[in-house]
Amino acid sequence: MSRHPIFDMAFARVYPMYVQKAEKKGRSQAEVDEVTCWLTGYDEAGLRQQIDQGNSFEQFFAEAPALNPNASLIKGVVCGVRVESVEDPLMQKIRYLDKLVDELAKGKAMEKILRQ
C-alpha cells in the first residue's frame, strides 16, 4: 500500500482551511483550536509552535503529547469514509480531526464534540 500524500503535507497548510470552514458557519478559530488541543493534548503554545514550524501531519501527530482517551468515541463519516473503520492509525487521527471540525461547522454543541 502506498503512502498517502496527506501524511507529508504541512499541518499549517490545512489548518487555515479548518478555521475557514468553522468561521463560515459562525464558529471561531478559538473553537477549532479547542477541539484540536482536546484531540492531541497540545496546549495553545504547542499548537502554535507546530503551525509555525510547518510540521507535517505525521510530525504533528507523532509529537502530540497524548491522543485524548475519548478519541475512540468519535464516530461517523468524513469524505465517505467511516472514521472508526480507518485501519491506518495516522490516517484515523487525521480523520478524527476532520470529523471534529465538521461537527463544529455543523453547529454541534462543544460538550458533544468533546465527548463530555
Structure notes:
The mean pLDDT is 95. Helix content is 54%, strand content 3%. With 116 residues, it is mainly alpha-helical. It is built from six helices and two strands. It is globular, with a radius of gyration of 13 Å. It has helices at residues 11-24, 29-40, 44-53, 57-62, 89-105, 110-113; strands spanning 77-78, 81-82. The chain has one domain (5-113): Orthogonal Bundle (Helicase, Ruva Protein, domain 3).
What is the name of the CATH class? Mainly Alpha
Spatial order of strands in the largest sheet: 1-2
CATH topology: Helicase, Ruva Protein, domain 3
Helix amount: 40-55%
What general outline do the C-alpha atoms trace? globular
Q: Give a quick account of the main beta sheet: strands, pairing sense, barrel closure.
A: 2 strands, antiparallel
| Global mean pLDDT | 95
Order of helices and strands: HHHHEEHH
Query: What's the number of helices?
Result: 6
| Alpha-carbon Rg, integer | 13 Å
Q: Which regions contain 5 or more consecutive residues with pLDDT less than 50?
A: none
Number of strands: 2
End-to-end CA span: 36 Å
Structural class by sheet pairing and helices: mainly alpha
Q: What is the percentage of strand-forming residues?
A: under 5%
How many structural domains does the protein architecture include? 1
CATH H-tier superfamily = uncharacterized protein sp1917 domain
CATH architecture descriptor name = Orthogonal Bundle
